[in-house]
Amino acid sequence: MAKDGTTLELDQLDFVQLQGWVRTNRAGKNVSFIALNDGTFFKNAQIVYSSDTLSNYAEVAKYLTGTAISVVGKFVLTPEASQPFEIQATEINLEGECDSTYPLQKKRHTFEYLREIGHLRPRTNTFSAVFRVRSVLAMAIHQFFQDQGFVYVHTPIITGADAEGAGETFTVTTREDGNYEEDFFGKHASLTVSGQLQAEAYAMAFRDIYTFGPTFRAENSNTTTHAAEFWMIEPEMAFADLEYSMDVIEDMLKYCINYVMEMCPEELAFFNERIDTSLLERLEHVRTSSFKRLPYTEAIEILKNADVKFENNNIYWGMDLNTEHERYITEKVVKGPTFLIDYPEEIKAFYMRRNDDGKTVAACDLLVPGVGELVGGSQREERLDILEKKMESLSMNTEGYQWYLDLRRYGGCQHAGFGLGFERLVMYITGMENIRDVIPFARTPRNLNF
Q1: Which regions of the chain are under pLDDT 50?
Q2: Residue 237: beta bridge partners?
Q3: Are residues 184 and 56 in the same domain?
Q4: For position 3, what pLDDT does the model report?
Q5: In sequence order, what are the residues at sequence separation of 6 or more whose Cβ sits closer than 8 angstroms to the Cβ of residue 96?
Q6: Does 443 map to a domain?
Q7: Of the candidates 419, 28, 50, 386, which has an alpha carbon nearest to the alpha carbon of residue 212?
Q8: Are residues 367 and 340 in contact, defined by beta-carbon separation less than 8 angstroms?
């Protein structure tokens, strides 16, 4: 696109100017080649420069990987070559030098090493692709919900309520003595673990809403799927039941996959070649499949009768399924995306609606091949008396939840929602296996380097 906003066809271009960073510099006696990345596209541009056209040829030939330069040159289509075009440079100027101590030299680095230099790793091919997909995927989330008429709500980062009731929160305080009555808020405050409860309040006004923001869990867990800070998408829908919520989940996931496949074909091809050779096949399968709905009780019977030995082979009704169980269901039994529904009440959160059987709740987890659980949701308990009794049975301090109970007292209605960990979705769509590698600066136990 030209500076005046008009779009130019490739064969209309003559001389161009661009800036970027040297990925490689293959210097010859009279003709040399720079692979330049300007940050706007996954692939590099090839810069051809010669001693005949550059007065500073000898200087440019010494530029090392990582050097920032500006280039003026002739745009030449090269349909017979490995790249579609090249820039035949008439001028190359140094913007910022980079010496031989630069950590990202021309070799493959382990992901473990790259996590130690998180400020530099977006310059690598893998992480350039990861974070471009992350950006596009965030746009897809917003586009999907905005097209459906959902209102985007910013829920608070600092809160006095633990939506999960798990207590694994980061405390926010200005005091060292733990005297919360004299603290900034006059009570105990923490970083949010979920915006769901506040989101429900806005669903009672706008009908369909969604949140998309950071959440925090103080879990001392060093696994590939846990982080202390991550992003969540949490839609809430009034006058909706669990079935409707599952329809939205299915539509959303398919939309996101289609969107990324359309906008990031080069990146996905890279992931399919370098990270997970079954990635594109898996995404295509999910994109074109109908998602099965399987009751938890049936899943337990399937697992009990399975002709395999699980690491946790103690299968019983009321257990919280492990990832190996979830993957067996979705990969070996259903062989496709699967909603597990109607979980035992005891293993789910207090706000989930009790089913008529008195034992289960209207909850769902979406299981997908290669990962296991991707999305969790439920129909919310709209009946005030049942919700109050549930909270009392869990010895919850209902005083701080009166505002939440008001949503049932004053015009409450059937409603449902779900939560999707954004990083887990990025992992699924890129094939990356560690949450630390799909978030710009990971926050994990004993790790606060940037």
Answers
A1: 1-8
A2: 208, 416
A3: no
A4: 40
A5: 67, 68
A6: no
A7: 419
A8: yes
pLDDT tens-place string over residues 355-366: 999 999 999 999
Q: What is the pLDDT, as a whole number, of residue 2? A: 40
Neighbours of 358 (CB within 10 A): 7
- In tens, the pLDDT along 362-421 reads 999 999 988 889 999 999 999 999 999 999 999 998 988 999 999 999 999 999 999 999
Q: State which residues form the domain around 83.
A: 10-96
Domain-embedded: residue 395? yes
**Start-end of H helices in 66-213:** 111-116, 125-147, 196-206
Residue pair 449/118 in contact (Cβ under 8 Å)? The answer is yes
Q: What are phi and psi of 423, to 5 degrees?
A: -65, -35
Same domain, 171 and 213: yes
- Are 14 and 74 in contact by the 8 Å Cβ rule? The answer is yes
Measured CA to CA, the distance from residue 285 to residue 216 in angstroms comes to 33
- Across 267-316, the runs of DSSP E, i.e. the strands, are 292-295
- Give burial (CB, 10 Å; 0-12/13-18/19+) of 109: middle
Q: 348: closest CA among 423, 254, 425, 242?
A: 242
- Of 328, 329, 305, the residue nearest 315 (C-alpha): 305
Q: Is residue 246 part of a domain?
A: yes
Amino acid found at 409: R
Find the Cα–Cα–Cα–Cα dihedral 427, 428, 434, 436, rounded to 10°. 20
How far apart, in whole angstroms, are the C-alpha atoms of residue 428 and residue 93? Answer: 41
Contact between 378 and 362 (Cβ < 8 Å): yes
Contact at 8 Å (CB) between 200 and 410?
Answer: no
Nearest to 279 by CA among 135, 129, 430: 430
DSSP string across 401-421: GHHHHHHHHTT---EEEEEEE
CA pair distance 66, 79, nearest whole angstrom = 28
Domain count, the chain: 2
* Residue 102 covered by a domain: no
**Secondary structure E strands in 83-239:** 85-96, 151-152, 158-159, 190-191, 208-216, 229-238
Residues 89 and 168 occupy one common structural domain: no
413 Cβ contact partners less than 8 Å away, ≥ 6 residues apart: 204, 238, 239, 382
In total, the chain counts a number of residues equal to 450
